[in-house]
Amino acid sequence: MSINAIQGSKSLAKKIKQRRAELGLTIEEAASRAGVGTKTWSRYEAGESIRQDKSKGICKALNWHQLEISGKETLTEFSLDTYKAHECWSEYLEKNFGAIAALSFVIGSDILYDHITDDMEQLAKMPKGSHIGQLNYSFLTDLLPAQFLMYYDYDFLYQLLSELQHLSKCAQAGIEIIAHSVLDELILYLCNEEAQIFIDAEKESLKLNRKEWAKYSKDWVFDLFDDMDIITFLYSYTYLNSENPYHFSHWGDIQFYTNER
């Protein structure tokens, strides 16, 4: 099940494309303003449905107060209950870290999926060994640790996507989500980071009581990891040699919460 969406149409697609042209924006520039990938924006201009949580980004990019929709396209109200029906809603996260933690994973995983697949589509057209730093535009370039930029090739993105899908299946099954590797930690951290802007903007719509908000923390991922090593090693400009467990060569290794520990 996908996140609540606005039904697409040729008329809405035409309005979006015309407005972008009026502002003199390329698809890449409009997508950047909206916080989506170029592939996703192109789907909007092709008349496909628009996820509800993306509508504000589109309005921001096009300087619209709201989407100029007709009777056929209806904007559904944000609802936590709707997201609870999403296939990636994690009962484990909800029970242990609060409903907003589960919501963060639902929204963040969808956003991260778009970022990864957009970059993979571009890299597939380039010579083998090309990395995301060579792309005209890539959201992942600013999200992933800078030290290992030139390692982020098609093969790595495929691995990243596969592990994201694995964590999503754990969420779907309602089983415990464990970060066994640096790659797991990185995915969960990025999902949470990418979801925050949307969640902060929709606080009133969530209609959670004080107890539920009190349980929620943006740092729930660090509680899940039981440390903040991902920040210490990957996002503090610390140089890592190949022996460090957070070096790129070890990202896929099963290191944390293993039976040996």
Automatic annotation (TrEMBL):
It comes from the Bacteria. One of its GO terms (molecular function) is DNA binding. Residues 16-69 form the HTH cro/C1-type domain. SMART domains: HTH_XRE. CDD domains: HTH_XRE. Pfam families: HTH_31 (PF13560). SUPFAM superfamilies: lambda repressor-like DNA-binding domains (SSF47413). This is HTH cro/C1-type domain-containing protein. It comes from Selenomonas ruminantium subsp. lactilytica (strain NBRC 103574 / TAM6421). The lineage of its organism: Bacteria, Bacillati, Bacillota, Negativicutes, Selenomonadales.
